[in-house]
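Quick question, first post here. What does this chain look like in 3D?
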Amino acid sequence: MKKNKTGKYLKYAIGEIVLVVVGILIALQVNDWNEDRKALQNEKNIYSNIIEDLKRDKTLLQYELSHAKEHQKVHYRIFYEFMGDSVYDENFQYDYMIIPITFHSHLQENHFGVSKSITDKDLTKSINTYFRALRAVEESINEHNSDIKNEIVNYFAEKGVFDVKNAFNQEGGWERNPQKQILLHEKLIQLQNDNYFQGFLVNQRMWTQVIIERIENQLDLNDQLVRMLEEKL
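> Answer (accepted):
Ran it through. Tokens below.
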């Protein structure tokens, strides 16, 4: 009789242990599921934030693309005026020749290195591709601006091309007003046979084209990345 009772107690104890173990395993599984769900939601929040920065970048890229095209128009116009195929237009903005192109990426500022926090390998690859292309855009813009800052501004000053009065006749932000241009067109045209200026025009023609092509590529990558992220949400 004692043996039967002992056997029953043992089975009961084992049953309780099994129940406790199963309960612990279920609790751990639920906890893991909750953690995975939180991690997934956190990653989706990152996706949403990246999308917002990409949309801001797109707006800036589109603006700078139009800016770069305006720069290139100046180079072409000056060249055709030199060739006698075009004449001075007082409403044309020649000052674009000395206006730097600026681009500041919100994605790079807020999410640089974010690919390390993303589990999707294809998405990680696309983000890294976007950042590499972005560096190429910035490099070409910096090269373009360097030519303006370090070469042409001093050169124009030596040649008396600047209308200093107009430069200081506009308080605060510089309004790009064709009627109040800083470059004196008559002085600019006198540089027609200047080898240095011709070299500058050719160099800037090439760099603006590089900028245009790289920005257009960046815009394509931007759209592709936004689509990928939206599909993950």
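The CA atoms of residues 79 and 85 lie 9 Å apart.
The chain has a mean pLDDT of 86.
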